[in-house]
Amino acid sequence: MELAEIRTYPIKSGKGVPRLSAGVLPWGLEGDRRWGVVDPQGELIWVGEHPRLLSVSAAETPEGGLRLSAPGMGELTVPPAAGDVISLSCSALDRAVLAHADACEWFTRLLGMPARLVWLDDPGRRTITEATGGLWDGPLHLVSTGSLRRLDDWIAEGAVERGEHPPDPLDVARFRPNLIVDGAEPFAEDAWTSVRIGEIDFHVSVPCDRCAATVWDPATQERGKEPLRTLARHRRWDGNTWFGIRMVPRNLGELRVGDEVKPG
C-alpha cells in the first residue's frame, strides 16, 4: 500500500489543495484548516447550508495570508490576519483572529449573509487527544481508493435496481480527506488500530461518521442523494453512516506522496 494523495484545506469547507508533501504537526497537517468562516455570533458556517463555500479556492501566500477566488467573485489577496481576537461559539475552539475587513466583505457577498473570515492563530488550542482524535475536523482524515471504488459499485448497483442509469464515480473531494491510500482492500481500514506512513506513526482514533455535507457535489454545488443513501444501506450502525478513519500522529515529520503505508 502507498500514500497516493495528500490534501490540505487552507479554509475549512473550502477547496482542498493537493500536496506532494506535508509536515505533520501535533494538531494535523501543516496549513490545514487554519482559517474558517463564521457568522456574527462566531458559529462556523456549515457548508450544508451554504454550499458555495465549496467553490472557494484558497492559496497560502509567502507572507502568511491567503489568495481567494471563486466563480463569479473577483480574486482577493488577504494579508496575514492581524485584527481583533474574537470569541467563537464552536465546540472545539474558543477564539480566533479576525481577518482583514475586505475578506469579511468578500465572504458576505459570496454567501449573501454576514460572514467573517477568521484565522486560528494557535492551533495548539484545539483539543487533541489519542482517545478522541481531536475536534474541528481534525487532526487527520484518511480514506482508501479501494473503499471508494466499492462504494461506487454499490451506488451503481442501486441505480440499476431502481431502473436508473448508473452515475459517474464519486469525487473523493466529497469526503474532504487529508490522506488517500491506494492498494488496500475495501474497508480494510475499519480494522486498523495504528498506521505507519513513511516514518510517521499514527493512532487510529475513530471511524469517520458522514454528515449531510457529502450530498453536495463539490464541482457544481448541487445537492443529490448520494453517497448517504447508499452508505445508509451498507455502512450504517450506531445511528450513523461511516466512511474513512481519523488518526492522531504519534511523532512528527514529513509525509510524501508515494510513502509506504503499513497498518497495524
UniProtKB/TrEMBL annotation:
It holds the Pfam family MOSC_N. It comes from the Bacteria. InterPro entries: MoCF_Sase_C, MOCOS_middle, Pyrv_Knase-like_insert_dom_sf. One of its GO terms (molecular function) is catalytic activity. Residues 115-264 form the MOSC domain. This is MOSC domain-containing protein.
